[in-house]
Amino acid sequence: MSEHKEEPQDGRPYKWEMVIDLDRCTGCEACVVACHAENNIRISGEQEAADGRAINWIRIERYWEGEYPNVKARFMPVLCQHCGNAPCEPVCPVYASYHTPDGLNAQVYNRCIGVRYCGNNCPYTVRQFNWFDPHWDAPLAEQLNPDVTVRQNGIMEKCTFCVQRIRQGKEQAEKEGRRVRDGEVVPACVQSCPTSALLFGDRNDPTSRVSQSAASDRGFHLLEELGTHPAITYLKRLP
Amino acid sequence: MKLKRRTFIKALGLAAAGSFLPGCEREVHHLVPYVLPDDEIVPGVADWYASTCRECQAGCGVVVRVMEGRAKKIEGNSEHPLNQGKLCAKGQAALQGLYNPDRIREPLRRPEREGRRPFEPLAWEEALTQLTERLRKVQGPVIMISRPLSGTLAELVSTFMRAIDGELYFYEPGADLPLRAASRAAFGMDAWPHIDLAGSDYVLSFGAPFLEGWLSPVSLGIAYGQMRQGRPLTRGRFVQVEPRLSLTGASADRWIPIRPGTAGLLAMGIGQILLAERPSALPETQRRTYERIYGDIPLDRIAALTDIPREELVRTAREFGSAGAPLAIGGGAACAHTNATESLAAIQGLNVVTGRIGRPGGLRFYEPALFSGTQSIPWLTERSLGELAQRALSVVLLYDSNPLHTAPPSIPLRRLFEQADFVASFSPFMDDSTSAADLILPDHSPLESWGDHVQPTSFPTAIVSLSQPVVTPLYDTRAVGDTFLSLAHRLGLSGFPRETFHAFLQDRWRRLLSEQAGTHGEEAFAAAWAHHVQQGGWWGRPGRELTVTAAPPPLPHVPATFDGDDQNWPLYFHPYPSPSLGQGRGANLPWLQELPDALTSAMWGTWAEINPHTAQAHGIRQGDIVRIVSRYGSIEVPALYYPAIRPDVIAVPMGQGHQEYGRYASRRGVNPQSILAPLFDHRTGVLASAATRVRIEATGRPGRPVLLEPSALDPGHELLTIGKARSSP
């Protein structure tokens, strides 16, 4: 009973957030492949990729600064920011885009009717539309993750913070009558990142690594001035 | 009708019973395929198997998620000391090697050398008999070209080759042999050093691509994160010196665009300044040797040759000299010239001059891990491959190595395949070299095989990783170890008491565990074996650090030579291994093909990186096809403006341009190797891939590079940015 505070019944909900340390990110893209493997993201192929229809839930944006020879490249991993005040949510006519009590910006695929209003309204352009049915040359489909739906033509999709992992972690913790431990649940991108540029955890737990890192004076949010209240805090790269 | 409660319940019971009846007739076994499920398979529950990544030489520990007999995901093994649960893009994409639709699924033979008749399948029995007959009646030398093998498989294959009087060679394109040779020259250590990046506070890297597939990229990536933000008060600084800013260089604080081939000169200049301005820890005689070697060329001359202002040179030397734990490393672009070994020796010497060898944050050497008997197996370089092709060979065995794609055609390698009496390949994929074989005995995927892997670079912990099959083999393939054991038995060779590679592997581990852990007796071994298979290998004992006592004089400077004069061939050609596809190994994996290059955002093809000023001077627009011409041929690729490349350099990533490598890679993009001159690092013989000079021609035709950032192609069609929207009324 001494661990009563650790039990989920203490009323504190989770608030899943991420911290991305740009001073650690090297643009290696381990996160991108991890995401594709975990979330059954389809292979678009050359033609569709050329038409701008390749799907990446996480991408590495690269910014050039300065002119030769004083030129620098800056990397920024961009994924769904899981905004607290998400511009994609109010525009969905069928409530496919909604906010979970854990602070996730979720997409209900079987509600989605493909009007793409959410994609248009997302300032981070992280929502991607399926312009065709996914296809895997046999036997590549053997790899598909059974915990994640395959999205069909006409559906909008985006990063879920690997909600299947979060759900599994929460169920396990509930069974054991405790809260999810810090670091117990991480999305695939965070798990793979060699330099530990990505951190994930519960912002409602002030002792979590993500809460402590987010308090860094290097912290900022993407397009902060739009007032979307993103759940991802970036830490500035030092010069 | 009056329905009583009792009759209602009766009716309900009947209805329920009735609903079961049709169930007996339906073929429900289609829904759940296991009436009596396999012990290891619980529907909906994942099993995790530890294994070892085989995508590069580093050998990271992995765990594979398996559900209902199918591999679902490869992740880093968090218990493995090398990669600590992390894994790179290539390692994760290896899953698509297992489930690749274009794997060779059964033994194949080519009916005739000439002509276009396709390969024909044949039974294993027959294939093994054919190869055995060839080996029995052999008239001349038998050679085997293999990707570098490790651990037990290396022992098995080298024993086999010795027993049949054959020659075994390892070949890996872009092998860091000059780095090893330079360590031998500078410290008397014939090994790849452990680079203690995590402990350094100033990293001066001469082209070393340590964040993109060099030596041990994941463990170096972990160390990089530590170096930057892992210590409370210190943020390590990082300076990259190379003609084209690489993916690794993109993370640097400062980029020094050095003239190609002069990295060693810069190191000399920095060494000069360090020796002149700082009291050195070196013994007097050694100090004098270094002063003589580094002082060979005056600083102003070095500044002119390297195209780096003298002030910048002095500043870099002072930063390096005043840092607490400076570290100088070289590789990549610095390793791609005819003077690679000398340049790297001069670079590594900077660590000697500042007393950083064997110190935290410096270059360190540890006692080699166990089973390192493979040290004596010779490595082929592009030069020695060319020499090999001149010999009259009887049988050529090829394993997971593709020299016809990774070596330039200016080295007449095809002879090696054409003139040999018989070529057999054990490769799991049809590639440019395997398609020239007479017989193919395909290997399993690494995820279907047993094996072990010895940590190849110096590392603080001695590691021998284990691989285990995580799925039942998909096709009629055989683990290459088993194939060699079958061949040995058929040839009646002695020294191969075991029937299967698994048993052979266990024998060796029995020895390892009895020597290292005092595990004796069959029962104790069985328990220990299960433990190590589950853990993913054997480690734990910290390796003994070796002290560098020998201090041979550094190598004197040699200028790099180039093919082509600077009048007719004004640009340096700079091919580099693609961060995702490497030199082409990853090109058959669609995840890697569709992985946008981090710097250009390009996918599914080849492109040329060109300084915008150079491009405009030649009338080349963004995305236009540019023709790159050397004395050995020409290639045409779309040009992408790249602001971080010297104006006298044009860069093209390697990895594409396969003739044969499955549906995702075949005839896609171009291979920059095809225009390279046969120039080598003159000490080791490794191809000097950046020693070819070229000229470029605008074709005026628009190309079609596939970019994630399409606005790069069409600056007039940029998305409205927030800033612009604000400023407009």
- Number of helices, counting only DSSP H or I runs of 4 residues or more of chain A: 6
Give the proportion of residues in helices of chain B.
25-40%
**Tally of helical runs of chain B:** 21
CATH class (first level) name of chain A: Alpha Beta
Taken in chain order, the helices and strands of chain A follow as EHHEEEEHEEHHEHEE
Could you give a short account of the major beta sheet of chain A?
A: 4 strands, mixed
Low-confidence stretches of chain B: 16-28, 716-729
CA gyration radius of chain A, whole angstroms: 19 Å
Share in helix of chain A: 10-25%
Q: Give me the secondary-structure category of chain A.
A: alpha+beta
The share of residues in extended strands of chain A comes to 15-25%
What's the domain count of chain A?
A: 1
Shape of chain A: globular
Most extensive interface between two protein chains, with residue counts: A-B, 58 and 71 residues
The assembly state of the depicted protein chains is heterodimer
Give the total of beta strands of chain A: 10
Strand content of chain B: 15-25%
Q: Key terms for this structure?
A:
heterodimer, A: 239 residues, alpha+beta, Alpha-Beta Plaits, four-stranded mixed β-sheet, two-stranded antiparallel ribbon, globular, disordered N terminus, B: 729 residues, alpha/beta, eight-stranded mixed β-sheet, 21 helices, 28 strands
What can you see in these coordinates?
- The complex is a heterodimer of chains A (239) and B (729).
- With 239 residues, chain A is α+β, with helices and mostly antiparallel strands.
- Chain A has a single domain, classed as Alpha-Beta Plaits (2-Layer Sandwich).
- Chain A has helices at 30-38, 46-50, 117-121, 163-175, 188-192, 209-214, and strands at residues 16-21, 59-65, 72-78, 97-99, 105-107, 128-129, 156-157, 198-202, 219-220, 232-235.
- The longest helix of chain A is centred in the C-terminal third of the chain and has 13 residues, at 163-175.
- Chain A is globular, with a radius of gyration of 19 Å.
- Chain A starts with 15 loop residues before the first strand and ends with a strand.
- Chain B has 729 residues and is an alpha/beta fold.
- In chain B, 29% of the residues lie in helices and 17% in strands.
- In chain B, the strands form 7 sheets. Chain B has an 8-stranded mixed sheet.
- In chain B, α6 packs across α12.
- Residues 16-28 and 716-729 of chain B have low confidence and may be disordered.
- Chains A and B meet through α1, α2, β2, β3 and α5 of A and β3, α2, α7 and α19 of B.
